[in-house]
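Handout, section 4.2: multi-component inputs.
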Amino acid sequence: MNWIRVTSTENIPLREGRAVRIGDQEIAVFNLGDRFVACHNACPHRGGPLADGIVSGTSVVCPLHAYRVCLESGKVTKPDLCVRVDTYPVRVEDGVVMIAMPEEQEKAA
Amino acid sequence: MEDLVVVGNGMAGVACLEQILKHAPKFRVTVFGDETHVNYNRIMLSSVLAGERTADDITINPLEWYQQNGITLRLGVRITDVGPKHRTVTGDDGSATHYDKLLLATGSQPLIPPIEGIDKENVLTFRNLNDTRALVARAGKGVRAVVIGGGLLGLEAARGLQLRGCDVTVVHLVETLMNMQLDGTGGLYLQRKMEQMGVRVLTERSTTKLLGNGRVEGVCFKDGAELEADLVVVAAGIRPNVELGRKAGLTVNRGIVVNDYMETSSPRVFAVGECVEHNGQIYGLVAPLLEQGKVLAATITGNRGPVFQGWTPAAKLKIMGVDVFSAGEFQESAGIEAVRYEDPAMGVYKKLLLRGNRLAGVVLVGDASDSNRYMDWLRNDADLLMRRRNLLFPEPEQDRGASVAEVADSETVCGCMGVSKGAIIHAIHEKGIRTLAQLKECTRASTGCGSCTSVCEQILKAVAPDFEEETKKVLCKCVPFPQENLREIIRSQKLKSVQQVLEIYGNGTGCEVCKPALSYLVDVVWCGDHEEDRSARFINDRVHANIQNDGTFSVVPRIRGGVTSPGELRRIADVAEKYRVKMVKITGSQRIDLLGVQKSDLPKIWADLGMPSGQAYTKGVRMVKTCVGTEFCRFGVQDAISTGIELEKRLENLYTPHKTKMAVTGCPRNCSEATVKDIGLVGQEGSWQVVVGGAAGKHVRKADLLITVKTNEEALEAAMLFFQYYREHANYLERTYDFVERVGIEKIRKETVYATPPQKRDLLRRLRKSKALSRDAWLEREAPVHPTQFVQIQPMEVIQ
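Output:
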């Protein structure tokens, strides 16, 4: 795990997401109010930008065809499919959102 | 003729008097009321405080009623003494009035706890219309109000004051709210609802002192803590007014003691309502008091026979959106089985207490829609053995008339308006009533607190030959209310943001279906003067462009009436090249679409274009398509271009339930296809036809004629009236063509172009207010609502 300092918490409004490119990965970061979460910014269905979706509790709804992705597990819950998007651990330190990137991807970048 | 004197002009006394009049007795009636207002519906005072109704709205019997029935009404006179020997009552105006029969309906008064300094200024109670007026006069934005007592009245007062802008804290003596009617869990559910609405709740606080020099400035608790306050409401309970009963020499315990025939210990004196005690029980609800009134009326008119058999104690909180109902027992005890249901996210808690297989009590918080069913079980002592699987959920419907058939015709269905089952059936037969709305209009049933609505519907279903159920489709499971109710809730509860609606009336989170719908509703209810929450909007409305299948966006500038210029076209061409847009396309709406734009380029493109947003991405005003009309066309009979551009200017930048496309055509040849648009103006020789509800999408529908008018201005006004009416009445995502078919063009005409001048003025006023608060969304290029609205975030560190 490689913790990357990403952006000030203020840059991600409450209950919205923002896209950020880390290495060769496009990642969607969300502000759920009580915490921040991150996942790969592409819906498993047609690659829609999840960062642009509407947040519903701890899920996000893809803006293209309303696939619903659980931001905790990465699982697609509507329709109920056995498909996941990658999720990434997030922590906040000194007002900065930090995302942990896996080592392989770090090497690939 | 005998003299009947009634002391008390409240609901119980006057309802009893109505029953006495039905027996056609030979009484000369005098009614004394110490309030100066005619008889009103006391249980609706909280909605007067909340600003949902006016004092006039809650009047039950107007002055004319007293006159028509030959009743002498003495308002503002308090009876201070009874002389049973000479059979007179004495008023505080010095008057003495003779009686042959005396009816005491003196009600109750607020219990004032022994708190030091309770006589300070701005310390009020909440019991009658004068109290309510005093509270309204003192309430306002920023006023710090403390309500002492977290029971029914205290909570209703708290919510009412909060709706008037006060910063409200409820102080409650024990651990949980409404502890006389709810168990601890129910009290906590209720507390959470109140807190979500913005009312602060402090429990286990004993108030010992009110602070302030003359005027109240704060409250002091037993533990020494203090709380600042500009206004204190004492709602610590009520006690029956029994002094006159004592003076009349009656047997008095907590209340004036009556038997099953509603007789007191004296043959000439009767009592009814909250001041009486029957079998050790005092009632404060309307239904048992009306029942008492009927029994008393029979007894006093010499038709002694009917008896009052007591009533299951029940309570219902009257705060919109906070369903609380309790009846019978509410605490577990030996021999009691409890059946519970809880949904913390929806704030729903239900508990049924069973003894044997019979209901002993029920507690409902968050959803009291089944309260009538449980009340029936309680009152009928129903054997529930066969219903054990369906206690908390409706039973599969078998004979839907059965439960209605069990109710006697004489039984009151609507306690607020005093409408019996028989009266409802009579109205159905005589007036041909088929819908609940018609029933409300005809009989006033279910127009009070609304708790009898489901019973009224059942009666309609069972009796009306062609009952039309009002299909109430709820918006979404996150906020399970029909949209028309949500509009009303948003308006009356003064909810200005989507999140407020979700937290108080929904599951607190919302979803992609309800959030955009609620965004629309708060915008239209407050005419744009709401708290905009972009997180509740679809991405198109966050960045003012239409998302495409590859995550890029399309840009459609406004080209009013489809009229552009060489300079504009040149700028569009330059922009297309500079930002390498993937495609430039002429749309079907006489506009130009630039496709394949990156989100981060949007503000720069808008700036380079120097044109306003065409709103091609939103549920809002799209465009007005025009033909060239009289300006160039050989056949043109009306100026389509300037009229179309004017129409677009008047309506652009506004949100609508669904997209709104318009067209103006200069002659009946209809080149701009106005008859298949949401709103169309069709030019005729010397007049305009204004047509609405056309479609040329998934299905094709020819627009309905709204009206034919002479001048351009009249045509524009008719279009604006329809436009605003559609905004205020259509469901979100309902196109005009569905709306017009659902509502009917006749009704729409009546409520728009044929409405009264004040109604039209109001529609146009609200439209103008919305318009004044709207602006070109693309101006956010200079003043983004958030620093990263259009920005792709760059990480603070790079992976090596």
